[in-house]
Amino acid sequence: MLAIFMQEAANQAQDAAEQVPEEKTLSFFELIFSGGIGGTIIIAILFVLLVVAMYIYFERLFAIKAASKSDPNFMAQIKDNVATGNIEAAKIRCAQENSPVARLTEKGISRIGSPLEDINTAIENAGRLEVYKLEKNVSILATIAGAAPMIGFLGTVIGMVLAFHELATSSGQAEMGSLAQGIYTAMTTTVAGLIVGIIAYIGYNHLVVKTDKVVHQMEATAVDFLDLLNEPA
């Protein structure tokens, strides 16, 4: 009798073990492509925006780093050449440096002999051109930072509309599993949009900080050059 009871208990335990629901896993690619054509298109657009944002960020980062490099003895050499009246040597030194600071200084040197106001205006105009070069395509990065989350949210809204459309057309008898799966997949577009937007936003602000440093460096050089021209002979 005891043996029969123990056998029944073992069978019940085995049946319970067999009834344990199997844990379902969903890979990243399955999550993307199971969202239908709408979700896949949104994810593809966000991926393209991410590639563009990363390209602009690294291209501008290297360009700004190259523009910020300058010889610490550059202005001292320019001052010596200008003080001795060797204007051509000063121009050649500026051409050798090939940096925004050097190009601003060269513009001022080329105006030596003109009124100080004209020299200052020429340097300011050259400075605006250099800032424009440094900020090339950075605005696109800012646009991606703002547009990516909205595109992701658009994908989520489309997914929710399709999910409720399925619920409406099935007269409220749609399977909750498939409905939840559609909503879950639709939310991935918002996650993807936020990730792309955050990356672009951080990259944009980092480039702005780097650009401001170069701009301050140019302003300091312009002040030094104008002070040099104001020095008594």
TrEMBL record:
InterPro entries from the UniProt entry: ExbB/TolQ_transport (IPR050790), MotA_ExbB_proton_chnl (IPR002898)
Domain MotA/TolQ/ExbB proton channel residues, every copy: 97-219
Keywords annotated in UniProt: Cell membrane, Membrane, Protein transport, Transmembrane, Transmembrane helix, Transport
Domain of life according to the entry: Bacteria
Principal cellular location given in the protein's record: membrane
Pfam families assigned: MotA_ExbB (PF01618)
Keyword Protein transport set for record: yes
Transmembrane intervals: 31-58, 138-163, 183-204
Topology relative to the membrane: Multi-pass membrane protein
Subcellular localization, as worded in the UniProt entry: Cell membrane; Membrane
Entry keyword Transmembrane helix: yes
Assigned protein family: Belongs to the exbB/tolQ family.
Protein name per its UniProtKB record: Biopolymer transport protein ExbB
